[in-house]
Design goal:
Length: about 280
């Protein structure tokens, strides 16, 4: 079976075929800046997974990821607060963002990898990134395979400094790769032992927290809060936010970096002194 035939089989297996729809030649990941072609199946380099954008599908998800064997791994419709039915365009921007837009050109969902905070307390996207998939099939922006990382860009290792937003589906590894932290596709934030992938800690176990609402995980910066004329210092902290931006869980402590303790539990640690 040639590649074009395989593309047709995959599209017919997972979508509602339209009379006017035309299968496109397969594409390849990672993707640099540009528009995603509707109906094109974008394969990972090893061919094990693919991403497809189908804005004309009136029934199914508009943007989704599957294994070559047909197991669905991720879908835009699974994202909290996102109406995937509005998706009309998908693109990778020069500024390092992957965006899904509606017919009016409004961004309805996006991801980006960011650098350190700027003077306004925001994280600027960094140019030169490409769109790819994590081992779990979640879309992510990365410099992987592009050579040396730009200054200030963290590899996916712990500890993490303030201003970093975790990318969903990415493993953040402790020193020596004893444990790894991951914001999973089901929105749960978990720690696993690296040697055997044994579950160590999870947001789902925290009292009063609905892990399914965890739309974003970030290392928030410190600062000073003023309440009734009283100024109180605020330390950097890990924050888990829902789709409205409300903090539903946080890890606080005296340290300036986020990491894992010897048992694999999330903690804030003192910042390292770099010589």
């Amino acid at each position: 079976m040639n590649l074009k035939s395989l593309t047709l089989v995959l599209l017919l297996a997972f979508t509602v075929a339209l009379p006017a729809a035309k299968a496109q030649p397969p594409g390849k990941l990672p993707l640099a800046a540009g528009e995603l072609a509707p109906g094109t199946v974008y394969y990972t380099p090893d061919g094990s997974k693919f991403l497809v954008f189908l804005p004309d599908d009136p029934v199914g998800d508009k943007l989704w990821v599957s294994t070559k064997g047909g197991k669905r791994l991720w879908g835009l419709g699974d994202r909290p607060g996102v109406n995937h039915k509005e998706a009309a365009r998908a693109r990778v921007t020069e500024a390092g963002r992957f965006e899904v837009l509606n017919a009016a050109g409004k961004v309805i969902w996006s991801i980006q990898a960011t650098g350190p905070e700027n003077d306004d307390g925001l994280c600027d996207p960094i140019e030169g990134q490409v769109l790819t998939l994590t081992p779990y099939g979640v879309p992510m922006m990365t410099f992987e395979g592009l050579g040396e990382l730009p200054e200030g860009v963290s590899e996916y290792n712990l500890p993490l400094v303030s201003g970093i937003t975790l990318q969903q589906g990415v493993e953040y590894r402790s020193p020596g790769f004893t444990f790894y932290l991951i914001h999973q596709a089901d929105n749960n934030l978990c720690v696993y032992r690296a040697s055997d992938k044994r579950f160590v800690w999870g947001l789902n176990e925290q009292r009063g927290v609905n892990y399914e609402q965890a739309a974003r995980v970030r290392i928030a910066p410190g600062g000073v809060a003023e309440v009734d004329g009283v100024f109180t210092p605020i330390s950097p902290r890990l924050e888990v936010l829902d789709g409205t931006g409300k903090v539903i869980y946080k890890v606080e402590g005296p340290g300036g970096e986020f990491g894992l303790d010897p048992e694999g539990r999330p903690v804030m640690k003192p910042e390292r002194i770099l010589e």
